[in-house]
Amino acid sequence: MIDRRLLVRYLVPAVLGAMLRATAVLTLVPLLTALFDGTGAWGWTALFAAAVVCGWAVEYAVAHTGFAIGFGLLNGLETRLLDRLQRVPLGWFTTERKAEGQRALTSSGRELCQSITHLVTPAVNALAMPLLIGLGLLAFSPALGLVALAAVPVLLGALWASMRCVRAADDAYAAASGEAGTRIVELARAQAALRAAGRAGTDGTAVGRALDRQRRAVLRLVGFGLPGHLLFGLAAQGVLIALAVTAVASAGSAATVVALLIVGVRFIEPFTTLADLSPALQALRGTLARVRELLNAPVLTGDDREPLTGAPAVELRDVHFAHEPGRPVLSGVSLTVERGTTTAIVGPSGAGKTTLLSLIARFHEASAGTVLVGGHDVTALDPAVHMGRLGIVFQDVYLFDATLRANIALGRPGATDGEIAAAASTARLDELVERLPGGWETRVGDRGAALSGGERQRVSIARALLKDAPLLLLDEATAALDNANEAAIIGALDARRDGRATVIVAHRLSTIARADRIVFLEEGRVVESGSLAELLASGGRFAGYWARREAAAGWTVV
C-alpha cells in the first residue's frame, strides 16, 4: 500500500506542474502577439519565464516524490511476493509459472519503481495538459477553445484504438517470448545430456519451435502496429487542420493567428507523448498482470493442531492425484503408517512413489481422498507447523552456496555445535569435514557443486537427523551412497527411531529388508502390502520384483 501522505505530496505538485505547463503554453498567445505587433512584451516574457522555472521546480519535486513512491512499491511488492510464494503449493509452480515468477521478482519491481516517474507522471501530464489548454483557449478564442475541447475525446479515442490494435499481438508476443526464454534455459541446463546424445542445433526441438513462434509473433506485432499508428496519425492531422482553420477564422490579426497556431501545435504534443509512451504502458500492463497472477496464487492454509493420541503417524484414504486432468498418478491409494515403524514404498519407475511422499509433505494436494498426519487432514494443518514435524530427504538434494555447517544447521537453526557435529557424525560426514580445506566453514558451492552426489546426500541426511522430527520421509535418500555408508546410516536411523515413523522410497534390497512393512505400488495403485516375509511367501508382484532385483545385484561388467 502507498502512504496516503506521500500520495498527496505527489498528486498536488503533479496537478500544479500540469497547470504551470499549460500556463506557459497559453502565455505564448499574448507574448507572440505582442512581439509581432511590436508592443511591450516584457511582462508576458516574465510571466512565461516564471511559469517555466516554477514548472521545473515542481517537476523536480514530483520526480523526487515519485521515486519515493516507486521504492515503497518495490519494497512492498517484494515482501508480498516472497510471502505469497512461500505459502503457494509446489504443484502450482509449472515451468511457465516459474519463469513468470522469476521475471516478477527480478524485473517487475524495478519496472514498477521506475514507472511512477518515467511513465505515470508523463502520462498524467499528457492527459491533463490538453484539457487545461482547451479551457485556457476559451479566454483568447472561444471557438478555438471549444474545438480543442471537442478534439480531446477524438484524439484519446484514436489513441485507444491504436493501442487496441497492437494489444492482442503484444500479448501473443509476450507469451511467445516467455516460452522461448523458458526453453532456452532448459536447453542450457540440458547441454551435457544433449551433447552426450550427439544432438546439436535447434531444428525440430522444443526451443526451435518456441523461437519460430516468437518470430511469427514479432511479425504480427509489426503488422498490427501499422494500422494503429496510421489511424492516430490521421486523427492528429485532422485535429490540427481543424484548429488551424478555426484560428484563421476567429483571430483578429495575423500575429494572433500565428500565436494560436503555435499553441495548437503544442496542444497536439501531449497526445504524441502518449503515443510514444504506449509501448511502455503496454509493457507495464503485462508486468502488472504477471504480478497480479502471483499475488492471486492459491496459498496453503490451516491451523496449529497437536497430533491425536493413538492416531497413526500417516494415513491415506482412497487418495487420487493427477498433475493434469485425465492422466492420474495415484488412483485410490489407501495405507497406514503407525508410529515407531518404517514403511518402504516400493515399485517400478513411474508408479507414483515420490508423488505419494509429496502428498504427505503437502507439496501437492490430493485431487480426491484424504491424507492424514497425526490424525488430522493435512489441508487443515498450518503449513509451517506441519513442516516443523517432518524430516525430509529427497534424492535430488538442494544445498545452498553457504558453509557446510550452515547447510546442516538449516534443519534446526538454533542447534548447538555439538548437536550439529553429532548429526554429521551419524550421517558419516566426519571424513568429509576432515578432508575439506576449511572444515566446517568450507563453502559447498551453488547447489553443493563442491561435493559429490553421495556427500550431498549425507549432508541432507544430517540436516534431517538434526531436525529430529517425529515423521521422516526419505526418497531414495541413500541411492548415491556406497554399501558401507548406507548400512551405517540406515542402522543409525533404526537405532534413533524411538516413536518416529519413517516412510522411505527405496530400490535397494538392503533398505527394503529393514522395513517393518512394504507397500508395493504399480501404476498408481497399491498392489500388495505386508512384511517382507509375507510378500515373498505370497509369490505375487513384489516377489517377482524382489527376484529381479536380487538377480541384478549379481551382475558384473566383463
Automatic annotation (TrEMBL):
Transmembrane portions of the chain: 7-29, 41-74, 116-137, 143-161, 217-235, 241-263
Pfam families for the chain: ABC_membrane, ABC_tran
Membrane topology recorded in Swiss-Prot or TrEMBL: Multi-pass membrane protein
InterPro entries: AAA+_ATPase, ABC1_TM_dom, ABC1_TM_sf, ABC_transporter-like_ATP-bd, ABC_transporter-like_CS, P-loop_NTPase, Type_1_exporter
GO CC entries: plasma membrane
Keyword NAD applies: no
ABC transporter domain segment(s): 314-548
Molecular function, one GO term: ATP binding
Span of domain ABC transmembrane type-1: 14-283
Cell compartment(s), UniProt: Cell inner membrane
UniProt keywords, alphabetically: ATP-binding, Cell inner membrane, Cell membrane, Membrane, Nucleotide-binding, Transmembrane, Transmembrane helix, Transport
PANTHER family: ATP-BINDING CASSETTE SUB-FAMILY B (PTHR24221), ATP-BINDING CASSETTE SUB-FAMILY B MEMBER 6 (PTHR24221:SF654)
Family: Belongs to the ABC transporter superfamily. Siderophore-Fe(3+) uptake transporter (SIUT) (TC 3.A.1.21) family.
Protein name: ABC transporter ATP-binding protein
Organism this protein belongs to: Actinorhabdospora filicis
Taxonomic classification: Bacteria, Bacillati, Actinomycetota, Actinomycetes, Micromonosporales
